[in-house]
Amino acid sequence: MAERPVALITGASMGIGEAFADALAGRGYDLALVARSGDVLERIAARVRSAHGIDAQAVVADLEDAPSVERAAQAVQDRFGRVDLLVNNAGYGAHGRFEAIEPARETGQIRLNIEALVALTNRFAPAMLARGSGGIINVASTAAFQPVPYMAVYGATKAFVLSFSEALAEEFRGRGVRVLALCPGATRTNFFQVAGEGAQAGRFRAPADVVRTALRAYERGASYAVDGPLNRLLAASPRFARGSGRRERASTAHAAVLARVARSLRDDGVGPRGPLESGGCRRPSGVRARGVHGGRLRRPSRSRSSRLSSSWRLM
After folding, report:
1. Which residues are catalytic?
2. Which residues are 138's β-sheet partners?
3. pTM as predicted
């Protein structure tokens, strides 16, 4: 049995998953690192062991395959005896016309982005609840807040992750187990090599920035967190109404919100070429977001943007 807390991180071989490994090792967690790339995982495990004096296990598994999910979970249980923090980070997206994307890639997103995440949560959450301590961070996306044409399945899987995580956060409230949905935007990893550059919207954020946002929100007990001020703006923008007239009015309101945040960024000295750190801009008056910023408004909009996406194949 491990004396230090244990974190299981899926998709740990690069990008946000690797950044979680570095951050959590620095906080004294032993690590179970799960991905398909065994050589890469072993190098990361060796590095964090040496740098932080913790134990790190490399578990090679293809989480699109249900039996592999269970084998990976059992390997972690056998090594450490428990999991204190589950980071469901593995995922990928496919960009293009729905009819042009291979069906196997579409169903693969569902198996990895949803089914593996739910299976691992189901595997480890009951023990956390029995102990009265633990946590789960599920990596969703800014794509969770609106339908995403040309990434229809990907966006739908991330909407599931957000809804599922917020529901569990409420179910587990007061029982010692925290659940956070992390919603990054475009992040500097290999996602767009897999999904295609047409999936990108906005500036790239660094994986370490995304993880800092996640851990701050997790420690505050938020049920979800959107990384980056512009991404938070888009997540909090009004839902586009059905019907051409209402949609036009909603679009006008959306543009007004964008203009207001742009002015706020300029007022705070954060221009188009300046830093866009998560604490670097003032929230415009009248614009409130739930989750990491608090507030009790309705779920942020599912706008018409077809180019927001964030999670990627990390295995």
Report:
1. 154
2. 88, 181
3. 0.74
